[in-house]
Every structure is written in structure tokens, then in C-alpha cells.
TrEMBL record:
Domain ABC transporter: 2-230
MF annotations from Gene Ontology: ATP binding; ATP hydrolysis activity
Protein name: ABC transporter ATP-binding protein
Species this chain originates from: Paenibacillus herberti
Keywords per UniProt: ATP-binding, Nucleotide-binding, Transport
């Protein structure tokens, strides 16, 4: 169990993360929020890399900072990972393994081979990192985080720069890791959350906005999500407020919108997606802070 009790971080007079309380059990948990919402601050606090201003984060009953000092293993992939360009993936991971384990070289090599296979880097394992693409560096970062994590795995934007096939592979790797530990995935790709996570945390402007199931998040757009088909001429004259998507079909243009009122005489309420629930939740926050109604 990973627990945050009144966990917060303040820089001078500005709160990067206002005090929040959470409990996360074994499994894959998604973290959503716009830029500047406090996501990276929360991840660094959970990883024990940042001292909180208020409260604490506990893993197995111990502060994460004490947990790491006492030999507990937490894997952390930051949003921007740097690798020495002369190192190969195998050399980089063997070096990381030697800092974390007293196992023999043969045992460490087997472990490294396993994580290289998981992230699909075996064929490039002995090529210097200077020749790696951005996506390959990301996969190497995931491999290092997997190597480091036996209790908690934290990954920040791991699918950025990956093609669809590698994104799906990474989802499977994280799902397998989540069978035995707490895994926290921060991403702007809502499809990764919807396809993999049982729970989602939403931050907005340093505040906890939501923590619960993905279905519960979709519920914020209940009775506010509309779909209808219109002609191209009518679509050009439509106001764009609340319009989520417009897809051309053989019959016209299929529209989808988020609105309190029907945006068209032909619009019908439809089941919202998690993405639409997220937009409704964040829009509600903006209107509340502006003193308006959503």
C-alpha cells in the first residue's frame, strides 16, 4: 500500500501541490492533469526524491525516503531521461544493476536480458546510445525503472515518442509489473489510461480533483455529451463552443459535443467517454475559479 497523508509541496509562497490524501494498492494507477497541475511534483514526492512541505508518503508503513535508505526498491522514470551516449543499453543497465544488487555478474546479466526483452531492446542492446532514437531512449528508461522496482514503479510520460505498436507493448509490460506492486503512470495520452488503469488520479492547478475508477471519471460528462450528424454547410455555420470532434462520413459530418444544453435540434445524448468526463471535470474547475457556472 502506498499512502499519502496531507502530502504537499510549497515553494516560497506558491503551492506546487496542495496537501492531499490518497491510498494506492497493488495495481496500475493513472495520473492525469494539464501542464503545471503538480503531477511531476507528486511523482517525485512518491519516489522519495523530494522532501514534502506537509505530510508524508508511506510505503509499507515507512516514509518513502526511509524506505529507500533501508534498502527498499522504487523504480522511477522521469519525463526527461539522460543516458551517457557512449554506453550501450546493456552496459547502462548492468551498471544500474550493480548499484542495486549484490547478485553475481551472471545473475545480473540474466536480469538485464529479461528487461531488455520486455521493452524490445534486445536487438539494439550492444549499440551505443548515441545512435538511439527518442523512443528507444524512453524504452531504455522504462527498462531501468523496471530493474529498480520491486515495491513501487513510477513512470512519467513513458509512451511519448513511441509508435502505436511499442505503446501497446509498454501497456502490457506495465500491466504485468502491476500484478505484484504499485505502479503509477503519468501521461497525457488518455487512451493509455483507459486501456490499462483500474483507477485514475486527476490533478488541476496543484489540487486533487478526482481519485476513483475510470468509469467514475466518465460520469462527470453524464447528460452533457451529445452526438448528431449534420451537413457540411450547416456545420460551417455552427458555433464551436463545446465541440469535441467532427468526422466526415458518407452522409455528412458526425459531430460530438460537451454542453449543458442541446447544441443542435438533431443532437441526442450519448454515453460519455473517460476523455469527455475529464474535460467536463477540468472545465468545471475553470468555471468555478472564474466565478461562473459550467
Amino acid at each position: 500500500m502506498l499512502t499519502a497523508h496531507m502530502l504537499g509541496k510549497q515553494y516560497k509562497t506558491e503551492w506546487a501541490l496542495r496537501p492531499l490524501t490518497l491510498q494506492l494498492g497493488t495495481g496500475l494507477h493513472g495520473l492525469l492533469g494539464p501542464n503545471g497541475a503538480g503531477k511531476s511534483t507528486l511523482l517525485r514526492l512518491f519516489a522519495g526524491m523530494l522532501a514534502p512541505t506537509t505530510g508524508d508518503a508511506l510505503l509499507r508503513g515507512s516514509s518513502v525516503r526511509d524506505f529507500r535508505r533501508n534498502g527498499g526498491r522504487i523504480g522511477y522514470l522521469p519525463q526527461n531521461m539522460r543516458v551517457l551516449p557512449q554506453f550501450t543499453a546493456r552496459q547502462w543497465l548492468l551498471h544500474a544493476a550493480s548499484l542495486q544488487s549484490k547478485a553475481s555478474l551472471k545473475e545480473r546479466m540474466l536480469i538485464v536480458d529479461d528487461v531488455l526483452e520486455q521493452v524490445n531492446l534486445r536487438s539494439e542492446a550492444d549499440v551505443p546510445a548515441r545512435s538511439y532514437s527518442f523512443g528507444m531512449i524512453k524504452r531504455l528508461g522504462v527498462a531501468q525503472a523496471l530493474l529498480s522496482a520491486s515495491d513501487l514503479l513510477i513512470v512519467d510520460e513513458p509512451t511519448a515518442g513511441l509508435d502505436p505498436e511499442e505503446r501497446i507493448r509498454l501497456r502490457r509490460v506495465l500491466a504485468e509489473a502491476a500484478a505484484t506492486r504499485v505502479v503509477l503512470l503519468s501521461t497525457h495520452v488518455l487512451g493509455d489510461i483507459g486501456a490499462s488503469c483500474r483507477e485514475v488520479i486527476v490533478l488541476g492547478r496543484g489540487r486533487l480533483m478526482y481519485h476513483g475508477s475510470t468509469q467514475g471519471l466518465a460520469g462527470f460528462a453524464e447528460d452533457r455529451t451529445w452526438a448528431w450528424e449534420t451537413s457540411e454547410n450547416e456545420w460551417r455555420r455552427m458555433p464551436l463552443d463545446g465541440l469535441l470532434s467532427a468526422r466526415k462520413t458518407d452522409e455528412g459530418i458526425l459531430c460530438r459535443a460537451l454542453s449543458e444544453r442541446s447544441p443542435s435540434p438533431f443532437a441526442q445524448r450519448v454515453e460519455p467517454t473517460m476523455e469527455e468526463g475529464y474535460l467536463a471535470l477540468m472545465g468545471h474547475q475553470d468555471h468555478q475559479e472564474a466565478g461562473g457556472l459550467f
